[in-house]
Structures are given as structure tokens and as C-alpha cells.
Amino acid sequence: MSKELFPGLELSEKKLKSVLIGCGEQATNLIHDAIAYMDSVEVVAVCDLNQERADFAARRFGLDRSYQDMDEMFREVEAQAAFVVMIPRLQAQIARRCVEAGLHVYTEKPLGTELEDIYALGESARRMNKKIGVSFNKRYALAYQDMKRAITSEGFGSPSAYIAKFIGGYRSTPTDLLRTGSCHFFDLGRHLIGELDELYAYKYEKAPGQHIFSVTAQFENGCVGSMVMGSMGSWACGFGMEGVEVRGDRNMVWADNGRDFTWQKPAKILNSYAEGASSQNTQAIAEEAVPVEITRPNYSNIGKLTQNNFYINGNYQCIKGFVDAVLHDGEPPVGYQDGLMALKIALAIERSVAEKRAVRISEIDGHV
Ligand SMILES: NC(=O)c1ccc[n+]([C@@H]2O[C@H](COP(=O)([O-])OP(=O)(O)OC[C@H]3O[C@@H](n4cnc5c(N)ncnc54)[C@H](O)[C@@H]3O)[C@@H](O)[C@H]2O)c1
Question: Which among 23, 26, 287, 329 has most CB atoms closer than 10 A?
Fold first, then answer.
């Protein structure tokens, strides 16, 4: 039974005894903050190869020591779940070791960077009957929540175009850009529109760490997609780094940098010339613009849970979905299949560039 402490913050009688593995930048700045707010999580141990980082996390959670060796921690500590915030190529492998040690696992994105690692994790999770949660927090980011609400509202029409842009700064390789950096935008496409069917991709590579991909795609429901992902921008720019736009039937919604959400509803039709349109050879309809709706969080009211970065970005809600699923024996709302599909889309893009042809997502190894 939960009791509300403040809006959005609940006291919980049930606690998920958890270990935190990986205490790097993302863990320290977002994930551990979010977990510290959750009464339903009891952190019983922390682990990082880097002792200073691990000790810092231990102090934050009131623990008198940290671990540098995961196996030692598994032997000495009794827990139900692990939160893995690891270097991307190790994430699925370490998640699997946690599952084999009897823990449910929540990982940062990407779930993994190699199909074999993800399949091996899936096989272990099925055998050990453990749940997997994945940090596709943008699904819960306030701007994208507003976008999803608009898209599914009456009168929006079925989505006709998904346009996504993610152009940040340096990434070590094109593989890192696609499999790790861009996976949020593959996942958002699936979340907002549906499964992707086929894509064709081009790559521009100026120098190592400086590349841009352009992808044309079609979703199974017919919606078309256009995605541009690159590393020739800047991590620090205020505008133009991340953008998502969805077109419906004369409706359009978009969000810049995962923040301001804008909804341009259909213009008012003043007069339809549809009958004589072909002879006029011009627009068939006279329209008048309607005001746009802009939703913007109130950053000045800093005393609320919803004004924290980890809430605006959706990390808190994504983690809570996993925690509630484990405590109440449900399915994590974002999990194994989502992590797998995001990697398959990245691999389809790589194959399309290499083979200069359209690639169906179903070509990327049907094994699940
Ligand atoms: N959701 C998002 O928007 C978002 C944003 C940034 C990063 N991330 C993800 O978070 C993850 C971590 O990124 P980061 O920037 O914090 O990286 P980081 O390098 O700062 O942190 C990784 C940590 O893992 C530790 N580590 C490595 N191997 C280990 C092992 N075997 N046992 C224990 N600890 C080990 C390292 O010492 C390091 O402290 C990545 O997967 C990244 O994709 C997600």
C-alpha cells in the first residue's frame, strides 16, 4: 500500500532491495538522483571499478563501503534488483551476470551493442524468470508525453510522417553514434508511431568521429519517416541538437531539444474550392491560421518533483515503471524487446549503408 508524501512522491511499504552497478557520469547526475527520491527502492550496495566514484555513491546512499568487484558484492549482499549504468558495450553482458546471480535488472540505454549479447541476456532472463527494464526515458520526458497525448487525441489523424533529428558532438565511431547515441530516436519512433518496416540510409563521413546519417523509412502502418543522426554538431548548443516532429492529418506536433512542445492544429477552412480546383491549378482550400499551443515546464517552481531534470527527462518515471513491475509482479513498461528493436534498427541502417539498398527490419535476424 502506498501513501502520497507530496504530489508524485509516494511512501512505500514494499521496498525493492537493489544494487547499483556503474557509478559514472549518467548514474551520478541522473539515475542515482531519481532512485534517491524513490521510497520503494532500498539501495543495499554500490559497485564501480573506480573506487572514488563508487565511494561517492556509497556515501550518498548512507552505505559504509562500496564494491569494486561485482561477484564479491553478489556473494556478500542480498538483493532483488540491479541498476546497471555501464559503458555501452558491457551493459548486456553485465546485466546477464546480474540475472544469473538471481537479480531483476534495469539497464541504461542501450540494452546492448551486439545482438548476441542481447539474445544471451534474454535467454538467461527467461530461464531465471527475471524482468528486464531499459532506460528509454525519453518516452516519459514531459515534452514527448505531451506529444504522445496529442497524437492519440481525437482529430489528430493517423500519423503520416515522423521526422527526427539528433546531431550532437563527437562520437568515437559511426557504430557508437547509431547503436548507442541514436537509439532513443529509434525507440521514440516505435513508441509514437509503431513498428518500423523498412529503411534506406546514406552516410557522410568527414573524419573519424565526424559523421552524419540520413535515413528514409516506412513504418508498418504506412507512416513515412525521415531521421538525421550525426556527430558534427555540439553537445552544448541550446537549439537544433535534438528535434522530433510528427505530422497527422493537417495537425503537426514538435519538440526541440526534448523540451518545448508545440502543437499546430489544423487551420480553419474558410472556403472550399475543391470542385473547381483542377481548373484553378492552385490550392483547393482557403485557410486561416489558428494559434499554436506551446507547453513549457515552469522552471521557476523548483520545489516540485516535476521540476527536476530527471523528471523532465523522464528518468524517474521510467525507473519507477520497472520498480513497480518488480514489486507487483507486472511487466516493465519498457524492456527487453524495446532494447532489442532499437539495436535492430541501428543494424539495419548500417546494412543499408554498406549494401546501398533498402533493408527491412525483419532481415536483421528474426531470432527473439
Ligand atoms: N538515457 C540517456 O539519455 C543517457 C545519457 C547519457 C548516458 N547514457 C548511458 O549511460 C551509460 C553510462 O554512461 P556514462 O556517461 O555514465 O559513462 P561513464 O564512463 O561515466 O560510466 C561508466 C562507469 O562504469 C564503470 N565500469 C566499467 N566497467 C565496470 C565493471 N566491470 N564493473 C563495475 N563498473 C564498471 C566505469 O568505471 C564508469 O564509472 C551508457 O550506457 C550511456 O549510453 C544514457
Answer: 23
Count of helices and strands (H, E) across the chain: 13, 18
In a domain, 217, yes or no: no
C-alpha of residue 251 to centroid of ligand 1, in Å: 39
DSSP labels for 147-191? HHHHHTSTTS-S--EEEEEEE-S--SSHHIIIIIITHHHHHHHHH
CATH number reported for the structural domain that contains residue 51 in this entry = 3.40.50.720
CB of residue 53 inside a 6 A radius of ligand 1? yes
Q: Which residue has the higher pLDDT, 258 or 105?
A: 105
- Give yes or no for residue 27 CB within 6 A of ligand 1: yes
Distances (CA, A) of 233 to 80, 168, 171, 214, 259: 41, 5, 10, 15, 18
23: cell is 557509478
pLDDT in tens, 132-176: 999 999 999 999 999 999 999 998 999 999 999 999 988 889 999
Number of domains in the chain: 2
- Residues facing residue 268 across a β-bridge: 288
Is the distance from CB of 323 to CB of 43 less than 8 angstroms?
Answer: no
Ligand 1 site, residue 85, Cβ cutoff 6 A? yes
Q: Which residue has the cell 531519481?
A: 34
Give the domain range for residue 74: 2-138+312-338
CB 258 within 8 A of CB 141: yes
Cis peptide before 110 (omega within 30 of 0): yes
Is 34 among the domain residues?
yes
48 CB less than 6 Å from ligand 1? yes
Percent of the chain whose predicted confidence (pLDDT) is above 70: 94
Residue at 40 is within a domain: yes
Residue with cell 474550392: 273
Q: Is the distance from the beta carbon of residue 179 to the nearest atom of ligand 1 less than 6 Å?
A: no
Ligand 1 centre distance from Cα of residue 90 (Å): 9
